[in-house]
């Protein structure tokens, strides 16, 4: 049975609030408390109802002040947050901080952000549950047990994971316990793990895509030796499909996700783009469109580290 309290409805389109840039303006779009606040208010006031946040995002405090300032009742707002695989007690302590930051008594969806240290990043200390061990298995299991405790206390309506591959999911399956309700993973026409989607959907795990439009500003964070990632929105085949349906390129890509049963977290501070992102339910891509988008894979197109490398 998936870890969900009662009937939890997860809006298809959410607002991503993670950034890749720095406060000094380098490395892509920066999201701090001010940006998170303003985007959250705009998103909620135009009808958006799901917001994705994380303990790792500098925007998290702004999400908390933003939903309060919007005047939208808490019961109408779906808030996701994430924790690192840091162990049982550490997770319980961190969750208390998350509730305070988000100015809420509960979270709608709580995820384990990564199955271990994100490949290519070493800016965080190794938690006690990993020290002296070859794999992150103990940390993952301890942290999942902490999420189950929070779930039983009804301080969260659903629990799940993020960036988990099949081998990571099977560790939870082997506990003979509750299963994740969601797996949030990078997914877009340039990078899509179709077998992982099939596995999750087979086990009734909602597949949630982040960076669904390929994160166009991500190239700014790469060194000069990397092959620049073409802006997916400007790809000639995407532009052609968009013109065919009278839609924007971003709308076409988001619709491609939804027709596969995948919910999305596009990140934007532009109210016009927010409205576009929510307007993907009045047209349908045909089989040729879907196949064309599925074969746009591009070398070095992965935005974040590869979780398949995490033992």
UniProtKB/TrEMBL annotation:
Keyword annotations from UniProtKB, A to Z: NADP, Oxidoreductase
Matches recorded under InterPro entries: AKR (IPR020471), Aldo/ket_reductase_CS (IPR018170), NAD(P)_OxRdtase_dom_sf (IPR036812), NADP_OxRdtase_dom (IPR023210)
Pfam families in UniProt: Aldo_ket_red
Record site feature (Lowers pKa of active site Tyr), residues: 82
Domain NADP-dependent oxidoreductase: 14-294
Membrane-spanning segments: none
GO molecular function: oxidoreductase activity, acting on the CH-OH group of donors, NAD or NADP as acceptor
Tree of life domain: Eukaryota
Residues involved in substrate binding: 113
Catalytic residues (UniProt): 57 (proton donor)
Family as reported in the entry's similarity comment: Belongs to the aldo/keto reductase family.
PANTHER family on file: 2,5-DIKETO-D-GLUCONIC ACID REDUCTASE, NADP-DEPENDENT OXIDOREDUCTASE DOMAIN-CONTAINING PROTEIN
Protein name listed in UniProt: NADP-dependent oxidoreductase domain-containing protein
Lineage, broadest ranks: Eukaryota, Metazoa, Spiralia, Gnathifera, Rotifera
């Amino acid at each position: 049975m998936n870890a969900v309290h009662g009937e939890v409805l997860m809006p298809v389109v959410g607002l991503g609030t993670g950034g890749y840039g720095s406060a000094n303006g380098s490395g892509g779009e920066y999201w701090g408390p001010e940006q998170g606040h303003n985007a959250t208010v705009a998103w909620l006031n135009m009808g958006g109802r799901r917001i994705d946040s994380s303990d790792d995002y500098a925007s998290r405090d702004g999400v908390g002040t933003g939903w309060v300032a919007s005047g939208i009742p808490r019961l109408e707002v779906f808030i996701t947050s994430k924790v690192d695989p840091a162990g049982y007690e550490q997770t319980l302590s961190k969750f208390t901080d998350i509730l305070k930051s988000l100015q809420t008594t509960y979270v709608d969806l709580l995820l384990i952000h990564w199955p271990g240290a994100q490949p290519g990043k070493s800016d965080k200390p190794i938690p006690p549950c990993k020290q002296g061990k070859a794999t992150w298995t103990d940390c993952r299991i301890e942290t999942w047990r902490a999420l189950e405790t929070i779930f039983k206390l009804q301080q969260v309506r659903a629990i799940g994971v993020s960036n988990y591959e099949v081998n990571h999911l099977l560790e939870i399956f082997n506990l003979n316990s509750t299963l994740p309700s969601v797996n949030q993973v990078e997914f877009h026409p340039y990078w899509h793990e179709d077998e992982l989607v099939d596995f999750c959907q087979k086990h009734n795990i909602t597949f949630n895509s982040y960076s669904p439009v390929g994160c166009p500003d991500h190239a700014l964070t790469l060194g000069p030796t990397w092959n620049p990632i073409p802006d997916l929105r400007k790809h000639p085949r995407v532009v052609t499909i968009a013109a065919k349906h009278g839609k924007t390129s971003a709308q076409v890509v988001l619709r491609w996700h939804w027709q596969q049963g995948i919910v999305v977290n596009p990140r934007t501070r532009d109210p016009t783009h927010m409205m576009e992102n929510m307007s993907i339910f009045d047209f349908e891509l045909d089989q040729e469109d879907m196949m064309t988008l599925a074969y746009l894979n591009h070398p070095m197109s992965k935005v974040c580290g590869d979780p398949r490398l995490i033992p």
